[in-house]
Amino acid sequence: MVIKPKVRGFICTNAHPVGCAKSVEQQIAYIEEKGNLGDGPKNVLVIGSSTGYGLASRITSAFGYGAKTLGVCFEKAPSERKTGTAGWYNTAAFHQQAAKKGLYAETINGDAFSDEIKAQTIDKIKANMGKVDLVIYSLASPRRTDPDTGVVYKSTLKPVGREYTTKTYDTDKDKVHDVTLEAANDDEILNTIKVMGGEDWERWMDHLAEAGVLAEGCKTTAYTYIGKALTWPIYGQATIGKAKEDLDRAAAAIIGKNTELLVEANVSSLKALVTQASSAIPVMPLYISLMQEVMKRDGTHEGCIEQIHGLFSTCLFGDTPTLDEANRYRMDGIETNDVTQAKIQALWDKVTQENFHELSDYAGYHHEFLKLFGFDVEGVDYEQDIDPLVKW
Ligand code: NAD
């Protein structure tokens, strides 16, 4: 079939296998160009491995350090009439490239929140890796079924305490307008913490420890976004921010429960980027379009792979980690420093419907958005008839 993007609101409902493969190859090439990254992980479990920051972590582990990688993700396979999801094609491409280099790579496709998938993962680790020395937790999900109770929790993206009115950009209607987001109630806050907080990260680490598959000195990290004043009301101090605060609790709990193994658990704060998860958050497309304009102009723009390469080489496996008072690795310093934020704020104050495209890097945002699904990738012939039935 000839595959063209089908964009509905903040999501694209199809994906291009060749474009996805090319963008995975570009990330691999970025890491390989860095040369030998030195001592690093050997056996890596990536939970949320198929897109965004998790995929970049898997690529860095495998192609930067030669590690065996086991991925867990939740993706849809293609059929004769419908393409698979981008994460499906990314994973297929990753496997193909890993095989070329003789690198072990396996992926479990299913609900990472379930105990069944945790058990399958442990079986695979025992069979093919022995123990893991790095566990990356990079899930972004709107819901979670609690394996103990069967209750389904749903996350919301709302301010906490009081309603908040702010500018936003509607990517569907190409409109900058004010939006008032109503405050979350207690139940919505609790639900969001249940989905995006640290409970499941801790549960993964408990199961892995009980099964005896954590290597001594094993490191684990879960990703967060902290941001600054412009995004605090809808992120850092909102429902999702409350959930992310719970990651700090979980990190301390993981360390406390695994003192004999000397497990290191840190939350890593990364910069805002266009991913499937962030494009669903109100205000983020506007904020990221303005932030990218500033950071590209300043020559400080980074994507997933650059951020994760930095995290591994300076923090997780380097001697120059930037840690904050809560023991979090900080890779978001350039985005959140006062100089960058003042420049973004100045654009934010000026931006209107009329000048949006002139003031912002929406063109770059849109390109990155399409690229997430394998579209608008240089060198891909989008008129070509493509077989969507790619396997892994
Ligand atoms: P993403 O949407 O690109 O990736 C999410 C991953 O989770 C995918 O691999 C998906 O398959 C997997 N997944 C979702 N539900 C699952 C389930 N039930 N079972 C198994 N796998 C499941 O997201 P992302 O933007 O890369 O976010 C990853 C993490 O990084 C999140 O914790 C996010 O908060 C954090 N983060 C994101 C940004 C940003 O701007 N995008 C910035 C800082 C931190």
Report what the structure shows.
This protein is of the alpha/beta class and 392 residues long. A seven-stranded parallel β-sheet has the order 5-4-3-6-11-12-13, sandwiched between helices. It has one domain (7-372): NAD(P)-binding Rossmann-like Domain (Rossmann fold), CATH 3.40.50.720. The protein starts with 6 loop residues before the first strand and ends in a 20-residue tail after the last helix. It has 13 helices and 13 strands. The protein is globular. The structure holds nicotinamide-adenine-dinucleotide. Nicotinamide-adenine-dinucleotide binds at residues 48-54, 72-75, 87, 111-113, 138-141, 223-225, 270, 272-273, 275-278.
